[in-house]
Write a structure and sequence with these properties.
The structure is a homodimer. By secondary structure, chain A is α/β, with parallel strands linked by helices. Chain A has a single domain, classed as putative 2-phosphosulfolactate phosphatase. Chain A has 11 helices and 11 strands. In chain A, the strands form 3 sheets. A 5-stranded parallel β-sheet of chain A has the order 7-2-8-1-9, with helices on both faces. In chain A, a hairpin with a 2-residue loop joins strand 4 and strand 5. Chain A is globular and about 50 Å long. Chain A starts with a strand and ends in a 6-residue tail after the last strand. At the A-B interface, helix 8 of A face helix 8 of B.
Chain lengths: 246, 246
């Protein structure tokens, strides 16, 4: 069974994800915030690439029905309702709302992955839910690391490697066919096992600290805080029902 | 001092390499073959992207003066004089000649790196020569992994990590400022220390074996076989004088 990790989003070729399940990882912070938004009861979330697109979509949907969220250079966008800190997406703020989100890397990666048969948003927050779903569907997943400004981001690679390791462990009889990215991610996951210790040493983590949002790092490192599975449905991200354990 | 590793060539931004020394790594096999060609006495080597460009340049330079070399899908190109197996570049074949080479990944990466202040071609074959030069010049190097068809190639990342580790060891008093790619490459170099054992497990290595050229793998794993430093000079790759030890 195929198991591929794309260490940077520019590696994504449409032919490579066709018919496959793509897990998009931007753990610092877009995919973590998306998990939080939907776990907190947001009705739906639109990932969009540009600020203009976000504002236009909010107008179309009705500005009062929409929460605009996102960041540029780690900081909240002027005129938007929320930034990209996962702790902002509380039930009080987002329950029943439509969120339109634009972030530098994560939402762009999700849009690029739209050609996959299924697109799941993964983070440490919903780690086991993602693994369980990949085990249940016996999908041949592509784990897509969103990275940073087209470049490699270590935290996403480590998360991908930990998902890959959990999948291999859960399906011991499968003969895996891995790309070089998956082999590397597995090794990196062994080397950097603790996200809370890793984050401050990554470029993304340092940028978040410099922006004065250092509290986001331990938040994003919380493993299995949420048992939810955000999936792309057309242009929107919604919660998939998580299958009960047999 | 900055030390960056770009794990895929698509990460290269012209602004990032401006003024810096770029080491291009495509150890399976273009950079290894370039080292061999120049160590065997080739006068100069032109890396070009396309087959048409190679044939056109050979006509301009005078077809009889030129050896056309390169590969597509690991195999020699029809009508060319040499493939991309390093063992083909013997003194008998190449001494005094001009080589025009087109390979799938390596020569494209070298061309992309041309905006650097200095471009060095590195491989395990000339590992120590590359490290010595980076130590001597106290350059802030960018180690550029050529990878495979825009995607990550593990062998180049491991070579980059070993170069980075040797550099850090040789300059213990330097405070290094590394990108995420460098941190990852250092970890991968520790995990996969022996290129001869690594190669058959990489996508590039498997493709070379499938093409019937498996003998190339142990050839490319020979560390420090050559004490030469191929550098880009305009459009050509030539040997730089290796400084004598003090």
């Amino acid at each position: 069974m195929k198991l591929d990790v794309l260490l940077t989003p520019t590696e994504l070729l449409p032919s490579e994800i066709s018919g496959r399940t793509v897990v998009v990882l931007d753990v610092l912070r877009a995919s973590t915030s998306i998990v939080e938004a939907l776990a907190a009861g947001a009705r739906t979330l639109y990932p969009v690439a540009t600020i203009e697109e976000a504002i236009g979509l909010a107008k179309t949907l009705g500005r009062d029905e929409v929460l605009l969220a996102g960041e540029r250079k780690a900081l909240p966008i002027e005129g938007f309702d929320l930034g990209n800190s996962p702790g902002e997406f509380t039930p009080e703020r987002v329950r029943g709302k439509t969120v339109v989100m634009s972030t530098t890397n994560g939402t762009i990666a999700i849009t690029a992955a739209a050609g996959g048969a299924r697109v799941i948003v993964g983070a440490w927050l919903n780690f086991q839910a993602v693994v369980d779903e990949l085990v249940r569907t016996q999908a041949e997943p592509v784990l897509l690391c969103a990275g940073r400004d087209r470049a490699f981001g270590l935290e996403d690679a480590v998360c991908a490697g930990q998902i890959a390791a959990a999948l291999v462990k859960a399906l011991p009889d499968v003969e895996w066919e891995m790309n070089d990215g998956a082999v590397a991610a597995l090794a990196l996951a062994e080397e950097f096992s603790d996200p809370a210790r890793l984050f401050p040493h990554t470029a993304a983590g340092r940028a978040i600290i410099e922006a004065g949002l250092g509290d986001d790092l331990p938040y994003c490192a919380q493993t299995d805080l949420r048992d939810v599975l955000p999936v792309l449905d057309g242009r929107q991200i919604v919660l998939a029902a998580v299958e009960a354990e047999p």
